[in-house]
Amino acid sequence: MGEYTNVTEIFGEDVFNDSVMQQRLPKKVYKELKQTILEGKELSLEVADVIAHEMKEWAIEKGATHYTHWFQPLTGVTAEKHDAFITAPLPSGKVLMSFSGKELIKGEPDASSFPSGGLRATFEARGYTAWDCTSPAFVRHDAAGATLCIPTAFCSYTGEALDQKTPLLRSMQAVGTQALRLVRLFGDTTAKRVIPSVGAEQEYFLVSEKMFSKRKDLVFTGRTLFGAMPPKGQEMDDHYLGTIRQRVSAYMKHVNEELWKLGVTAKTQHNEVAPAQHELAPIFAEANVEVDHNQIIMQTLKRVASQHGMKCLLHEKPFAGVNGSGKHNNWSLTTDTGVNLLDPGYTPHENIQFLLILSCVLKAVDRHADLLRESASDVGNDHRLGANEAPPAIVSVFLGDQLTDVMTQLITTGMADHSIESEKLETGVKSIPEFMRDTTDRNRTSPFAFTGNKFEFRMVGSRDSIAPANVVLNTIVAEAFKEACDELEKAEDFSLAVHDLIKKNFTEHQRIVFNGNGYSQEWVEEAERRGLPNLTCMVEAVDTLTSEKAVELFEKFGVFTKAELESRQEIKYETYSKAINIEAKTMLDIAGKQIIPAVIKYTKNLADSINAIVSAGVLDVDVQTELLQLTSQLLKETKEAMENLKTVSEKAHDMEDGRDKAYFYRRQVIPAMDALRKPVDELEMIVDKEIWPMPSYGDLLFEV
Ligand code: ADP
Ligand code: MG
Prior knowledge:
There is one protein chain. The protein has about 700 residues and is an alpha+beta fold. Helices cover about 50% and strands about 15% of the residues. It is globular, with a radius of gyration of 28 Å. The model has no long low-confidence stretch (mean pLDDT about 90).
C-alpha cells in the first residue's frame, strides 16, 4: 500500500505564492508587488531587489541551487537556462548565494536558436525574458536537484513577441478592458478587472517504457507510423471511465502529489475512450496561470511516467484507428469580485447582460471561426480535426435547447418571455434521490460548446500550448464587446438599444449555432451551405493568420503586429515541413532496416520449409506457396513505396522553406507515407510475431 497524502499540507509547498509573499516580504514591498500584479503598476528596481532576495532565501530553504527564467518560445515546449545563485569566490575562497532584482526581472538567453520567423535579423540575435509576476515562481525538484523557476515572457530586442506568453497577456488586457466597459453599462461600479478563466482537461496515453523504446517511430516522432489494428480496440467501450489499473493508479497518485506541491489543482482523473488513454483536469485558474500550469502538467506527466517504467505519450494521435488525444479548453470571464459573466442564471431570458455577452461571443466566433480553427492547428492535430474524429475541423457553437430557444424567440418575435425549465430527473428507483437535471444535454461532437457557465473549446491538441486558443478567444471577444460598447455607450435609450443589438447579433450570426452531430457528413454539407469555413489541415489554417481581417483584428487590440503574425506563420509552415520530413525519414529507416530484413527472413523460412516438405515427398504445399507469393508481392509493394517516398521527400527537402514547401509535404509526401504504411501493415498480419521487429499495437495498448 502507498502512503496516505495530506493534501492541504503539501498543496503549494513549492510555490512562491501569495501567502509566502505576505509572510516574507516587508509590508510596503508586498503592497507594491500586489499593485503590479493586479493593476499592472511598474515595479521599481529597489522593490525587485528585495523580492529577489526573499525569493532566493525561500528557494534555498527548499534546496534550490539554481534559478531559471522559464519561458515558452515557439518551439512548442518550454525553455530554460539555469544559473547557479553563486557569486565569484571571495578572498576567503568561499562563495555567497546571490540573486538580484535585475536578474529576477530580466534575462538574456542566447535567443538565436529559437524560432523567430525572420523577426530577428541574424546580426541582432538578442532576446529578453521578462518576469511575469502574475504567474507565481516555483521550485521544481528533479534529477537536476531543485531549481527556482520564474515564469517569464520572451521578446526580441525591439519588443516583438517571440513566445506564447506575451500575446496572451496582451489579449487578456484587451478583453479585460472591453469587458469592464460592458459591465459598467449594466451598473457594475465595483469590479476593477475582468479576467479570462481557463481550465484545460489534458488527455494522454501511457505505454510501457520497454515497449516504447523498441519503437523508433514513437521515439523519434511521438506517434506510430506503422501498426496493424489489434484484435481488440476500443469498440467494447470498456475502458472509458473503467476501473483504473493499479500500476496506473500509483502513477496518478504520484502525479497528483507532484502537481499539488507546485500549486496545480489536479482535480479529476479517469480512463478515456481508448485503451491506455487517460485524462487529468485541474480546477480552472486565470488564463496565464493556467497556461503555465498546463505546461507543468505535461512535464510532470512525462517525468513521473519514467519513474514508473512507463512513457507518457502526449501526441494527438499516437495510434492510427484509435481515439486521439486533445485538450478541452474551458473558458469564461470572471470579475475580480467573483462574478462569472457567462453564468446565465436560472432564467436566461431575463438576464440581459448575459444575453448580450452570449450574442457577442457568437458574433466573435462566427466572424473569426478561421482563426479559432488556426489556433488549434498543429501537425499532429491534423490526424484529429476533420479526420473522422472528434472534433470536426468546422467551427460551430453548441448552445443547447434552452439558450437556442431563447435565441430563437428573440430572433422571431423580438422578445424572449420564457426559458425552458429544467425537469426533475426520475430514475424510477425510490432510494435514489431525485434531482433537477441540467437544462442542456451534452454534445460531445461540438468543437465549441456552451456547458452551463463556460464555453468548452475542444479543438486544441493534447501536446500543444493552450495559449494560442486563448489569445484568439480573448481578442475576438474583445472586438465584439468593443463594438457593442461603442454603440451602447452613446445610446439615448439604453434598454431599447441593448435589446436591438442582441437581436441583431443573434440574427446575423445564428448560422454558427449547430446542436446536431458534428461528425456527420450531412453537417459538412450543411456547413458549406451556411458558408462556414472548413479548413481541413494545418497548412490551410495557417494561411488565415495573415489575412487582412486577422491583421486588422490583432493590430487593433495590440495583440500582434503584422510582422509578428507573419513570423508566426513562417514558423508554422516550417514546423510543419520539418515534422513531416522527420516522419518520412523515420518511416524509410524503419522500413529499410527493420521491416524488409524481417520479411526476407520470414520468406526464407517459408521457402526452406516448402523445400523440406517437398523433399519429404509431400506434394501439397499450396498454402505455403500462396503465402510466400503474397508476402513477396507485399514486399515488392513496400520496396516500391519506399522508393517513391524517398524521391518525393528528397524533392521536398530541397525546396525553399515556406508555404509552398509545406503544401508539398501535405500533398505529395503524406500520400507517399500512407502508401508505404499500407503494405507494411498487411505484412504485419502475416509475418510471424517472433520475427516482426517491433511491438504491435496490442502489445503497446494492453500491456501497461
Ligand atoms: P465537464 O464540464 O467537462 O464535465 P467540469 O465541469 O469538471 O467537467 O469542468 C471541466 C474543466 O472546466 C475543469 O478544468 C474545470 O475547472 C473547468 N471549469 C469549470 N468552470 C469553469 C469556468 N467558469 N471557467 C473556466 N473553466 C471552468
Ligand atoms: Mg470536458
